[in-house]
Design goal:
single chain; about 400 residues; alpha/beta; six-stranded parallel sheet; 15 helices
């Protein structure tokens, strides 16, 4: 598992530290930040650098401007929010790595913070163009990666720049690697994994890899119906992936041979149409009518899964148990959220919908770790390499 140098392993006093952060935050129609979680998650690294009298250069993307300057994706609203949070000046550059950025950086004093404009305004960013990466490196002494949600992408500011500067992980990434890495190497047992979401194909690698590590895997969401179908049960009009039925059967067989329990829903909340207002009923697994579709796990399943979670010493949850965006079919997901909060063991939540369920129920402080990575977390738990982590200096 990854063991990378932390920013605390570097001498940063008086140095220009280029920090790749993830300020890809939601904005409203007025261009105002509506959720600053991604900003506040970087504060431990920023505050540490301030304490060490470093010169801080922040770099982030926002949206998908496709290598062009798009006014609605400017980081100016982010700079304003960061000023209010830190209660100190933020020098906002009007360009990425042009004349103004060079001018601002040249005049920096220890404790100053410069926020570059959206790095994806430059085509060389997503192309991981080495010329652009070298330009980014030219304004700094040290590279610090603290945007875990981007490390699965080999872009200029997430991977290319590290070839030209001493590199390390920020405190956010260091914690992600420590917590997620422990799941793959030394989880306290029993280790229970809760997986949901829409598609089996999105979780194939994760399920296959975790079968080698978990004690129990609890499946929910639309993806569960492909496994239910693989066991020969009727699923009605529930969303399934016909081309993945055989794979689901093989995964069930692999788990059985490994002595790992994969539990499927025993009852389901079903409806005849995919609608927030659809009439619904609860039926046992295998009794879904041809005209019905499963849209959430049922109460017996929620109770069964809660018991498994309560017994666990480690729990990982990724993906909703039903159509979480419809309140009528959010009970299963919310039940998992409360079960996670009550668990006395190590609890890790990954994925947007799962994290949203925790936050919506105000349970953030009851969870050991809420991962900031989406694709990066899945890739790590699948056992795949992360290009934005591979390039960082090893902590030998």
């Amino acid at each position: 598992m990854y063991k990378k140098k932390s920013i605390k392993d570097m001498d940063v006093s008086g140095k220009r530290v280029f920090v790749r952060v993830d300020f890809n935050v939601p904005l409203n129609s007025k261009g105002q930040v509506t959720n600053d979680n991604k900003i506040t998650q970087t504060l431990p690294t920023i505050n540490y650098l301030l304490e060490q009298n470093a010169k801080i250069i922040l770099c982030s993307h926002l949206g998908r401007p496709d290598g062009k300057v798009v006014a609605e994706y400017s980081l100016k609203p982010v700079a304003e929010r960061l000023r209010k949070i830190l209660k100190r000046p933020i020098l906002m550059s009007a360009d990425v790595i042009g004349t103004e950025t060079h001018k601002l950086v040249k005049g920096m004093q220890p404790g100053d913070i410069v926020l570059m404009e959206n790095v994806r305004f430059e085509a060389g960013e997503e192309e991981n163009d080495p010329v652009f990466a070298r330009k980014l490196s030219s304004i700094a002494d040290i590279y610090c990666s603290d945007a875990f949600g981007t490390v699965h992408r080999a872009h200029a500011s997430t991977a290319g720049i590290a070839k030209y500067l001493p590199s390390c992980a920020g405190l956010l990434i260091s914690r992600e690697l420590e917590i997620l890495g422990s799941l793959l190497t030394t989880p306290k047992r029993p280790f229970v994994v809760v997986l949901g979401g829409a598609k089996v194909k999105d979780k194939i690698g994760m399920i296959s890899n975790l079968i080698n590590m978990a004690d129990v895997i609890l499946l929910g969401g639309a993806m569960a119906y492909t496994f239910v179908k693989a066991k020969g049960f009727a699923v009605g009009k529930s969303m399934i992936e016909p081309d993945k039925i055989e794979l689901a059967r093989l995964l069930l067989e692999k788990a059985d041979n490994a002595g790992v329990k994969i539990l499927l829903p025993v009852d389901n909340v079903v409806a005849q149409e995919f609608s927030f207002a659809a009439d619904s009923r609860i039926v046992r697994t295998g009794a879904i009518a041809p005209s019905e579709m499963g849209l959430d796990i049922g109460p017996k399943t929620a109770e069964l899964y809660a018991k498994q979670i309560q017994k666990a010493k480690t729990v990982l949850w990724n993906g909703p148990m039903g159509v979480f965006e419809f309140q009528k079919f959010a009970s299963g997901t919310n039940s998992i959220a409360f079960s996670m909060a009550k668990c006395k063991g190590v609890t890790v939540v990954a994925g947007g919908d799962s994290s949203a369920a925790i936050s919506n129920n105000k349970l953030d402080n009851e969870i050991t770790h809420i991962s900031t990575g989406g694709g990066a977390t899945l890739q790590l738990l699948e056992g795949d390499k992360l290009p934005g982590i591979d390039v960082l200096a090893d902590n030998i």
